Inverse folding.
């Protein structure tokens, strides 16, 4: 009974944290299913270290299966999805036991890096062995470049802030501070306690809702989780097409499509990042005005 009560408290806390990391995958798939897995781990008396080890093993198995062609890609994608779910589980267990730490966060990043870095070479080899087409091989490495760039863009504000505060020469630090202040972000957004409120109470238009939905879908599809799911659907489509229509090689067209989509995202996200004030706004809020 005590375990049930403990899991109920854990479940309520994780859903409360959802607003801070609430993407499409987390809301409809990641969090609901991972909580069920976490409950099993709690009943078995397992810890976050067991979940992290399971996460690494399932990820490496998923990556290795990619070498075996469409069937391997399908089952490999399933293992990689389980790898993503266990990523939620180890954090949930660490928070439940009060053992969340910087060390755990660093090991979690290494876990992701090892699995993601293993996935793409295995996928490239599997596609090449399947039909010997060099274009599929090239497309996979385009996908890998996008995956690395996506991580870079996500961590860009923190990386620049770290460099600005520690390793830049004094003159360069002051120039950056000055330029940030001159370009300044809205001071109202710098307060962590301030909440964004709508400027008016008018209902959101249908066009705005469509744009918002497309944006959510795009963000979900460009994540590593989204890539894994799309890859699994591509492999399943290839298997169905080969069985029903004797049409082989569909997975290669899916990979080429995903590569073209990645090129579009590389250009669009990079250009949007350069033009937007997101990084400048965040740095300005963290650094403040030294003259004050």
């Amino acid at each position: 009974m005590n375990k049930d009560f403990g899991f109920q408290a854990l479940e309520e806390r994780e859903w409360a944290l959802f607003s801070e990391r609430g993407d499409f995958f987390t809301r409809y798939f990641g969090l609901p299913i991972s909580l069920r897995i976490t409950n099993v781990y709690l009943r078995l008396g397992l810890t976050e270290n067991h979940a992290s080890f399971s996460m690494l093993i399932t990820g490496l198995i998923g990556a290795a299966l990619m070498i075996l062609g469409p069937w391997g890609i399908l089952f490999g994608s399933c293992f990689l999805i389980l790898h993503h779910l266990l990523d939620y589980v180890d954090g949930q267990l660490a928070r439940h036991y009060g053992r969340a730490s910087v060390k755990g966060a660093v090991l979690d990043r290494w876990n992701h890096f090892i699995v993601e870095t293993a996935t793409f070479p295995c996928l490239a080899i599997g596609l090449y062995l399947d039909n010997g087409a060099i274009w599929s091989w090239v497309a996979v490495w385009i996908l890998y470049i996008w995956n690395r760039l996506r991580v870079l863009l996500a961590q860009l504000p923190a990386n620049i802030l770290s460099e600005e505060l520690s390793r830049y020469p004094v003159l360069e630090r002051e120039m950056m501070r000055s330029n940030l202040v001159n370009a300044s972000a809205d001071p109202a957004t710098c307060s962590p306690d301030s909440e964004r409120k709508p400027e008016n109470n008018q209902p959101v238009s249908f066009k705005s809702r469509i744009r918002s939905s497309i944006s959510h879908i795009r963000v979900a599809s460009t994540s590593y989780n989204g890539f894994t799911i799309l890859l699994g659907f591509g492999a399943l489509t290839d298997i169905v097409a080969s069985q029903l229509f004797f049409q082989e090689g569909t997975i290669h067209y899916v990979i080429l499509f995903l590569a073209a989509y990645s090129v579009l995202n590389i250009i669009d996200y990079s250009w949007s990042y350069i033009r937007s004030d997101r990084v400048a706004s965040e740095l300005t809020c963290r650094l403040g005005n030294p003259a004050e």
Observations:
- The CA atoms of residues 55 and 83 lie 5 Å apart.
- The chain has one domain: 3-169+208-288.
- Confidence is low (pLDDT under 50) at residues 191-199.
- Residues 134-166 form the longest helix (33 residues).
